[in-house]
């Protein structure tokens, strides 16, 4: 098999083919690396007759050092002394580039690793950049990268109109099975952005590939996404952010271990057997988060061991876990009520799920995973139909 080349590798190999002018801006973070490991910033700066004017950074900052939902100020890159425009500042308006920061550019290049779940904010940073480029009248180039949890499996419902947010701007499935480049094509046409978009596709990537089959080195896309195992469970375990349960932030196993001080680990592990999920093993476990929920307190819970990732359904599993814990500890379990990703008038669990049906209906009924999956089928089928015209691989 020939080596996989990402979009940024192909752009660097043939800059005159892809770049419409000399003055460029880069939307990048620590994942923006070539196949040889060089930062895209350095690789772009080495190109002859090119001016790298400024950098734009998503949530977590240029080098991914800031925790989730921590505002990031504009800065200067210590390596290049280039100005860094934050696309995750103090208020919602900061999520999009300012028109004045684009006017002296011939194009904007987006090159950031996504992880395959609609809650992950980088794809919406991309969409905001596409919108602003359209308004400013400059082209945007999206350098494609692999979906690390494969481009075949799709799971979940779509986001309802009343629950749009920075963790769900568009009606796509929770686990969308698309690359960032494919999503850019879908956003541009189906949701009427209509910017001057070029997607530079990868070579040698297959839809069924997981990240550990690409030959690329894993760079954590955010502080709490340290490994591919984390990304594998994330489409379901992120739902716990909408509760008072720890999703493992502040530990070395974010999203792979969950719990709270009021939980008996062994009792929970036994209760989770009722979900009858042979592809995952729930190990009774105790842990102490060093920050965020239940900081400094010992939490009882489970570590989630995925035994068969091909059969593993992360969203259904995560929702099943919440249902079991809520039934066991109804008086101590609660939904998150604090503002979430710049939204304070709707609950985080509803924003994450895409509507209020899990909170108002499913959590109150005897849990039936198959019935829940069936309830998604119409929306999932509609999404599959919508996305098929935008797939590149």
From TrEMBL:
Residues 24-228 form the Peptidoglycan beta-N-acetylmuramidase NamZ N-terminal domain. Gene3D superfamilies: 3.90.1150.140, Uncharacterised protein PF07075, DUF1343 (3.40.50.12170). GO terms for molecular function: peptidoglycan beta-N-acetylmuramidase activity. Residues 233-393 form the Peptidoglycan beta-N-acetylmuramidase NamZ C-terminal domain. It holds the Pfam family NamZ_C. PANTHER family: HYPOTHETICAL 460 KDA PROTEIN IN FEUA-SIGW INTERGENIC REGION [PRECURSOR] (PTHR42915), PEPTIDOGLYCAN BETA-N-ACETYLMURAMIDASE NAMZ (PTHR42915:SF1). This is DUF1343 domain-containing protein. InterPro entries: NamZ, NamZ_C, NamZ_N. It comes from the Bacteria. It comes from Candidatus Nitrohelix vancouverensis.
């Amino acid at each position: 098999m020939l080596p996989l080349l990402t979009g940024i590798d192909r752009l660097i190999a043939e800059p005159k083919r892809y770049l419409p002018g000399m003055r460029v801006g880069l939307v990048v973070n620590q994942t923006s690396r070539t196949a040889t490991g060089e930062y895209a910033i350095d690789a772009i700066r080495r190109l002859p007759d090119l001016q790298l004017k400024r950098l734009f950074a998503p949530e977590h900052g240029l080098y991914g050092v800031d925790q989730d939902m921590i505002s990031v100020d504009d800065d200067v890159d210590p390596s290049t002394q280039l100005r860094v425009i934050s696309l995750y500042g103090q208020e919602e308006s900061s999520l999009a580039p300012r028109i004045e920061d684009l006017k002296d550019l011939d194009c904007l290049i987006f090159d950031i690793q996504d992880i395959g779940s609609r809650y992950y904010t980088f794809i919406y940073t991309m969409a905001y950049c596409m919108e602003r480029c359209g308004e400013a009248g400059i082209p945007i180039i999206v350098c494609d990268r692999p979906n690390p949890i494969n481009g075949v499996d799709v799971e979940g419902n779509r986001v309802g109109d009343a629950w749009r947010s920075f963790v769900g701007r568009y009606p796509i499935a929770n686990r969308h099975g698309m690359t960032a480049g494919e999503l850019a094509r879908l956003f541009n046409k189906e949701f009427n952005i209509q910017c001057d978009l070029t997607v530079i596709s990868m070579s040698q990537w297959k839809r069924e590939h997981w990240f550990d089959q690409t030959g690329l080195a894993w760079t954590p896309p955010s502080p709490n996404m340290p490994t591919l195992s984390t990304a594998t469970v994330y489409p379901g375990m992120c739902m716990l952010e909408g509760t008072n349960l720890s999703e493992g932030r502040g530990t070395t196993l974010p999203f792979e271990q969950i719990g709270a001080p009021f939980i008996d680990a062994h009792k929970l592990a036994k209760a989770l057997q009722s979900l009858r999920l042979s592809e995952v093993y729930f190990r009774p476990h105790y842990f102490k988060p060093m920050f965020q929920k239940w900081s400094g307190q010992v939490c009882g819970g489970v570590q989630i061991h995925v035994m068969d990732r091909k059969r593993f359904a992360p969203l259904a599993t995560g929702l099943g876990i919440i249902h079991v814990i809520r039934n066991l500890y109804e008086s101590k379990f609660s939904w998150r009520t604090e503002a979430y990703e710049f939204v304070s008038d709707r609950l985080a669990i509803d924003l994450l799920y895409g509507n209020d049906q899990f909170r108002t209906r499913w959590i109150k009924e005897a849990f039936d995973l198959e019935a829940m999956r069936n309830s998604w089928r119409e929306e999932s089928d509609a999404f599959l139909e919508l996305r098929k015209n935008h797939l590149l691989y």
